[in-house]
Amino acid sequence: MKIPRHVAIIMDGNGRWAKRRGLPRIKGHQRGAQVLHNTVKWSLELGIEYLTAYSFSTENWKRPKEEVEFLMNLFIQMVDREMELLKKERVRVKILGRKKGLPENVLKKWNEVEEKTCNFDRMTLIIAFNYGGRKEILDAVESIIGEVRNGKEVILTEEIFRRYLYLPDVPDPDLIIRTSGEMRLSNFLIWQSAYSELYFTKRLWPDFTKKDFLRAIESYSKRERRFGGLSDG
């Protein structure tokens, strides 16, 4: 198969998975964290260079306080629990999102995992946390305006604008997978997804399997990416 360089995943359906089983929503998030662990291993097996997981959006603050607090703690627990795998497989971790508004212990863990894995080069795992695509673009515009006000000349091109995004050195996703049957991007990588291939599955994220992942990769492999040009056929 033609393996995408960068796969991004909207991990949707944790709450519905738990509700169908009569369980609290946090059980769905716990199960979802395990599936992400598995997905990292599958990506390593396939030789995928970048894997991005949409973990906590800027809109998720609207959820009940108890659930938000659990998700903050789950982030910390996952970093601690997965450190052994990250070191063993030489996986670099980058966090994609806004630091403003996050608890101090989350920020500390954010900095810790990036520092401890900064020299690893087998794969880059990007955790989209406190992330919103529109907010990222607005933050980039604000940064540009600030530099212009300080006397810097900025001639805007797509390439120049990209430098003001949160992670400008990470390539755009080749494939975006969304679980749970919803067919939208939900404010995820708005700028970067312009030419991404999209794959939607009805499978809820906690039920997502290696077979589902391979189906998505196979679907991508059969597509012809033209980036606005003409078909070779």
Short description:
It is built from seven helices and six strands, in the order βααβαβαβααββα. The chain has 233 residues and is of the alpha/beta class.
Overall description:
This protein has 233 residues and is of the alpha/beta class. It has one domain (6-132, 172-221): 3-Layer(aba) Sandwich (Undecaprenyl pyrophosphate synthetase), CATH 3.40.1180.10. Helix content is 44%, strand content 15%. It has seven helices and six strands. It has a six-stranded parallel sheet, sandwiched between helices. Strand 3 (91-96), helix 4 and strand 4 (123-131) form a beta-alpha-beta unit. The longest helix has 25 residues, at 65-89. The two termini are 19 Å apart.
- Structural class, by secondary structure, is alpha/beta
Going across the biggest sheet, name each strand in turn: 3-4-2-1-5-6
By CATH reckoning, the class would read: Alpha Beta
Low-pLDDT stretches are none
What is the number of independent domains? 1
The total strand number stands at: 6
CATH architecture field: 3-Layer(aba) Sandwich
CATH topology name, in short, is Undecaprenyl pyrophosphate synthetase
Distance between the termini: 19 Å
The total count of helices amounts to: 7
> In the CATH hierarchy, what is the superfamily?
Decaprenyl diphosphate synthase-like
The major sheet is characterized as:
6 strands, parallel
The assembly state of the depicted protein chains is single chain
Overall helicity: 40-55%
